[in-house]
Write a structure and sequence with these properties.
Elements (H helix, E strand, L loop, with lengths): L1 H13 L11 H52 L45 E6 L2 E7 L15 E6 L4 H4 L8
Antiparallel strand pairs: 1-2, 2-3
Amino acid sequence: MTNRHHRKKRDKQIAPQRRIQLGIKRWEIVLALAISGSIALVIGVIVNKRLGGEMEAKIENDFRRISVALHQYKLDNKRYPSTDQGLMALLQKPTSPPQVPLWKGPYINREAIILDPWKKAYFYESSDAPPGFEIRTLGADGKEGGEHVNEDRVVRFQSKRSFQDVLPSRTIFP
């Protein structure tokens, strides 16, 4: 018993020297929040760069596909869709003038192609003399100018000659 009693007495003497921590200290919380915030910031920057790159790639791909469709439309109809007809003329036969009796569309397979990555319609303008077109997007903010994802993107095409200039003077259609 003396040994047991001696151990209890020794434990009581040591116990006041040891302090049992009952909670998390304030500086530990601040440190954890700082580390979490830093990690979130780094991940946010990486994700933002990747999304920006994906948006640019989608715009370039859309411009390429729309341009090819516009050239095919012109081959069939001897002109690009008018500005009033817009890019919808690539999906549906236009009902507004000028009439296109040789329309063989649709020239694109889905409406999403004529929408920019922010789900706004691409701006489209066409000219007859000389034949040409312009497709543009104003970026994420929808305003002219800007940087990064808000930057305006434009593709322009202008023919050197009109369709009539390309035809030989004595063409006979069967």
